[in-house]
Amino acid sequence: MKNSICRAAMVFTLALWPLGHALADSIRIGEMSSYSANPQSTDAYRKGWELAVKEINAAGGVLGKPLEVISRDDTGKPDAGLRAAQELVTNEKVALLTGTYLSHVAVAVADFANTNKIFFLVGQPQSDALVWERGNRYTFRLFNSNRSQVLALAKMAAELPAKRWATIAPNYEFGQSAVAGFRQELQRLRPDVEFVNEQWPALGKLEAGATVQAMIAARPDAVFNATFGADLAKFVREGNMRGLFEGREVFSVLTGLPEYLEPLGNEAPAGWIVTGYPAEQVDTPAHKAFRDAYEKAYGLSPKVGSLIGYSEMQAIKAIIEKAGSTDTEALIAAARGVKFETPVGPLTFRPQDHQSTFGFFIGKLAVENGKGKMVDWKFYDGADYQLPDDVVKTLRPHAATQ
Amino acid sequence: MYDASTLFVQLLNGLSYSSTLFLVASGLALIFGVSKIVNFAHGSFYMLGAYVALTVISIMPNTAYGFWGGVLIAALIVGVVGCLIEVTILRRIYSAPEVFQILVTFGLVLVFQNLIFEFWGPDEVLAPRVPGLRGAVTIFGERIPQYNIVLIFVGPIFLGLLWWLTHRTRWGRLIRAATQDREMVASLGVNQTTLFTVVFFIGTFLAGLAGALQIPKESANLQMDINIVVDAFVIVVIGGMGSILGAFLAAVLVGVINAFGVLFFPQAVSVLIFLVMVLILIFRPNGLMGGRLIPQRPSDLSIDQPFRPQSRRAQQATLAVILALALLPLLAPIYVEVMMTEVFILAIFASSLHFLLSVGGIVSFGHAAYYGLGSYAAALVATRLGLPMGAGIVAAMLAAALGGVVFGWFCTRLRGVYLAMLTLAFAQILHALSVQMVSFTGGDNGIVGLARPAWLNSHVAYYYLALGAVVVATYLMRRALYAPFGYAFRSGRDSLPRSAAIGINVAFIQWGAFVLAGAFAGLAGALMAYHRGSVFPTDFSVATTVDALVMVLVGGVQSVSGPLIGALGYHIVSVELIRNLSDYWRLILGIFIILFVLKMPQGIVGAFMGRFGKGER
């Protein structure tokens, strides 16, 4: 027993010991993501930014100093994310924060960045609120907003004869805003369209058989899907077997991402119009170089997480170089309108809402050699699919653009 | 509004889902019935079954025999793993209070998650369609996959097998006997050890089987365990703990209600199952088929020594500690202050749980409900009404106390595991509401931007506020503990009939305790809301409750100062693990929890006092 007490005391002392052992004179970046809670995507994301950091440092670093990334697991929970942010700032003395995977964690950390006046570059989360209703002047977002993808999809959907739509989306922020955005835009373009069935399974708990049946019973002409991961796999298999997708157009967000397409194998639903990332087919020189380097480093093909992680560090490098220092105010001024190169082309952060012009791919799914793949895809420049400036102004708090 | 064929097919869909639910729940019910272990890790065996089946089936030939043989082999492997766990870990905690069992199995959940990730990696895999059952059959013009039709029969087949096993074999009779009265069976000379191991084998085999049968419908993924286990518990509770037929009826009920819920109220699907459970427990407190539970031992948390007020020396020591903590900001870096502020707030939360758990023997497994009510009340008052922080804190305590009034009224009519599960159900309902009422609660994104008054803005100032709050809250809770109210509350824990005999209205006293503990948990929630500047649905989550339970355990369930020490120890250990070992923290934390329960069940304070002192622990 005495031993246990000694041990507990030792753990406690060790815990209180600030463990910061900095590289001599480096630029310290605080990074966090849901590594333990959502390894399916964040694993590729980590590989992506690690590759970028290696390349940047091999080429002489930023402002003559190496980048040093201090990475934390936010465990998929906002309070753990906040704690990690707090610790990175007060203990590790990082120059800026970046990363996160889930939207609500990003919203929490963005609020932290705002109150603590620290620069925060959001990586993967796509929540619209991050740049609009809850946007603040310290927070920038790299990946495309949920809205930009569904705007593009709704435009295409409006050209179909389909009038009766059914939707299915996980019942949390991502799914809610995807459906709301799609519906709003489609009904704006086509006032005669009606939404006859909306399914809202809890994330990860879709009971696919009954749900697909309920959608069939509503006799829709077309379907909009925002489920992904395990829910998507269930939905697709039941839908294929029960004939939900026969004779119906399906518009779907995220389904073409390698993360979600690969698990489906030959069950991948041919004919769906999806947003995604046809990593193996994008052959621009910049993307080819990225893909080759990634495959060489890890022996795997990149996923969208890899692309985002890689681009995230490119953005940070460009922002710091433009700012000339790691002072927060200088970073904000520099980030607005900064130009930086990524595997999917040059991007910038819009000064009016801190959203990057990250584009997206839309294509049709097909099955080849027992695997799903995007065909007839096109790259859409994110700059063309943003809300109009006057709408942004009404949504975004005034102080956020100061 | 829907034609008959749709309704009929939807019934079949519900029944097909029921089979999966039944396989998982019957294993859980069997294990609980005999060993009285509340096996929170049951979902992990289900997940393990899915992953093992994927591997086994990929080796087997791609034929119908290959698939069904692979499923059987996978389930057997899971059963063997279950046996190993029973022999090495669970066997040691059969006589421990149920809250310890929940914690050990929760530690197992963490260990399984980490190990399965290590072995199978992060990629999700959907198994190929089942050979021979690749298509669909058409019933009244609607198509149903053949595999789902087969699944409809799996549930009743295993119900039959289990009935045969428990009614027609000697082993089965012993299992039933042990479910009714374990001690009697032992007195008759039956070797309980083997009996328990076999039961655990069957239970985990069933869970593994359910997981293996799921892979043609769902990609194996690392969230499967948590997604199924709460539903399985709800079914076991609805059916009556330990009753297999009850589990079957409940699984059918839940499966069918879910299928029609999808048709008629798609927005409410995630709350439906908990509402059903609350309704059933109001009218049948022991579940559909649950008989009267025979108490196995005198009340679980009763202790040999009553709590005693602090001695003079202990009081002096307490003052010295408070003084030292007050001086800490002069020496320590800011990060330490931030951490300690959280420790103080969590200590209040853990103390409020300790009050119900240790003093009253009430396992509040949904304690996060009060914490979340507090944090949301504070946030709503601040952001909607624009009132200052003081008003927010008062509102938080009132809201959480009101939660105590409502939930306490239902919960004090139940005992033991039923009570634990009902409190869990309330917390889950609030969690679902906080996610769904987007315009009111902000949904998943919660409410951000809570501003503290200017004088509290610095970390140091908030540190002192939290320190003051924990001192005052602890003092008040101790006053309650040593007041007649506290004595009466404890008497209810130690002996219901005797307390009743001397004229104590135990249920009423317990109801009061729910209100009191709720108010303090609400205070902790509000302080945390202002500390973070934001509130989120995770405040209502199972994980929040489990954290508090582990804190109480680490400090020592039977120690008045346990929650304070536990909050300090656990919060710092877990945060440091997550910070430094992002790939293995769940494994280490899980092992830490298991070892703690096995080796130091009396907690840090208990161990210390057992060696060095008497008096208040």
From TrEMBL, chain A:
InterPro entries: BCAA_transport, Leu-bd, Leu_Ile_Val-bd, Peripla_BP_I
Residue ranges annotated for the Leucine-binding protein domain, each copy included: 32-365
Organism for this UniProt entry: Pseudochelatococcus lubricantis
Family affiliation: Belongs to the leucine-binding protein family.
Database matches in Pfam families: Peripla_BP_6 (PF13458)
Keyword Hydrolase on entry: no
PANTHER family: ABC TRANSPORTER SUBSTRATE-BINDING PROTEIN, LEUCINE-SPECIFIC-BINDING PROTEIN
Protein name: Branched-chain amino acid transport system substrate-binding protein
Keywords: Amino-acid transport, Signal, Transport
Top-rank lineage group of the source organism: Bacteria
UniProt signal peptide: 1-24
The keyword Signal is assigned to this record: yes
Automatic annotation (TrEMBL), chain B:
Localization annotation: Cell membrane
Principal localisation: membrane
Keywords assigned: Amino-acid transport, Cell membrane, Membrane, Transmembrane, Transmembrane helix, Transport
Residues that span the membrane, as ranges: 20-38, 45-61, 67-87, 99-120, 147-165, 185-212, 232-256, 263-283, 317-336, 343-365, 385-410, 417-440, 460-481, 502-528, 548-573, 585-609
InterPro entries associated with the record: ABC_transp_permease, BCAA_transport_permease, LivM-like
Record-linked CDD domains: TM_PBP1_LivH_like, TM_PBP1_LivM_like
Membrane topology: Multi-pass membrane protein
Family according to the record: Belongs to the binding-protein-dependent transport system permease family. LivHM subfamily.
Protein name listed in UniProt: Branched-chain amino acid transport system permease protein
Organism per entry: Pseudochelatococcus lubricantis
